[in-house]
Amino acid sequence: MLSRRGLWVNLVLLALLAAAATAALGLGNVSLSPAEVWAALRGEAPPLHRLVVHELRLQRVLAGMATGAAFALAGCLMQTLAGNRLATPGIIGIDNAATAFAVASVVGLVTSLAPSAMSLVGAVTATVLVFGLAGGSGTRGYRFIIVGLGVGAIAGAVTQLMLSRVAIDQANVAFPWTVGSLNARSPEATALLGAGLLLGLVLALRLARALQVLQLSEPVGIGLGLNLKRVRGQCLALSVGLTGLAVAVAGPVGLVSLLGPEIARMLCRHRGVPLLASALAGALLMLLADLAGRLVLAPLEIPVGIVTAVVGSPYLLWMLLNPSFRSRP
Q: What is the pLDDT of residue 171?
């Protein structure tokens, strides 16, 4: 059944996302009005305006929307799979492992594969390690989260070790991957993420009904004819793939995967799985965080990963201290 409130929430989030994108394209050292931004997008503006919009800001805005949506959608899937609001790809170490492998590619260690490919390898590696070390608990319970925290800490330490052992120029190139940044993102990586996000969103929406059943107890799901093993495998694969592609573009901006689904649930207020609302909320959050990072201390730029950490960390601590938020999503 279609939730009427959920439909309105998605429409409102889409409108807010369009407004945020327009603001991100128009605000900066060269400020443009919304009308001038849209004229530049249509190719009907002066050359300077077209240069600012198309060459300097559009790619960044597209990368922000795609990465935010991918992180939040991956977080919603992982939370539903684990039955725990704290179980996001960033918290269980997938982000850090994907970053470590991407940094290894950037600094030329071990392999020369592209960062996008290496980040996917890192995400898969972290997932295998977490599942293996969690033992029989699978994705259920806090053992899964604690093991993920350990794997993420090790991956973070490996990243810092690699950066400390390479030349300063290589370390400077790789540094944005460690904090999360949308500055000068590769159009090819963004296009790959966009294609992966579109495919992932379609597949996730096809799993929406099964994901709602997954929120119930295992006997109920089996009694309803749900193949739990297959659904969990598909859900996990989508979450890992989206996280790896997003890290390949923006680096570890993991708290978006926590905040996006939380915003969607708060707005939708129903017991379903707000997949599309989570993606839209994540995209909006990433754009606003990047815009704040560009403008608050201009001309000094704050990486988007630092902005989301400042905003999201207090909320994460509140969730940890509030027993009512440690329940199933």
A: 77
